[in-house]
Amino acid sequence: MSLELDLDLQVATTAAGLSAHADFAHWVEAAVADRRARCELTIRLVDAAESQALNAQYRGVDRSTNVLSFPFELPPGVDSTDPLADYIGDLVICPEVVQREALEQGKQAIAHWAHMVVHGVLHLFDYDHITDEQAAEMEGLETTILSRLGFPPPYEDDPPTEDP
Asked: In what order do the strands lie in the sheet with 38-46?
């Protein structure tokens, strides 16, 4: 099944070395594959201060983080055939944190970027990693998707990239 994707990539940071829109779209398409025929989402790239503020407000953690996922819930009374149903949510990604983690974990930055996008998109589809069982399922999916994209397994010999 091919995916019709509408990706709004917002760059609200001065960070250097960001991937192209096409890369983000490719990673999203890989994570969404076979889940739906049409998908809309926003990815916002932010500086550490905005990431920290959002993380504190929505997760109660007062520090910047790699990726925050905000799933969209269809309002009551809106039919699933409405174009609004194509919207899956928003991802907020902090390049400073992603690039620092890649360096600390000895990963290629592009591989870690792809992982963070895939990880965030899976959260938009209600995958989580709070319990060991959930983590095993989500990490297995991430590994499969990233392997299809040509990247190495993201969880070999490194610490988790996001708070549970």
From this structure: 4-12, 38-46, 87-93, 67-71
Cβ partners under 8 Å of residue 71, min gap 6: 88, 89, 123, 124, 125, 126
In percent, how much of the chain has pLDDT > 70?
95
pTM: 0.92
SS3 category, 70: strand
> Cα torsion for 30, 105, 47, 70, to the nearest 10°?
40
The Cα–Cα gap between 24 and 26 comes to 5
Token pair 């290629």 is found at 108
Sequence-ordered strand ranges (E) for 37-84: 38-46, 67-71
> Residue 92: beta bridge partners?
44, 68
Read off φ and ψ for residue 76, nearest 5 degrees.
-55, 140
Mean pLDDT of the chain: 93
- Residue 62's Cβ-count burial label (10 Å; 0-12, 13-18, 19+) is exposed
State whether the Cα torsion 160-33-80-90 is positive or negative.
Answer: positive
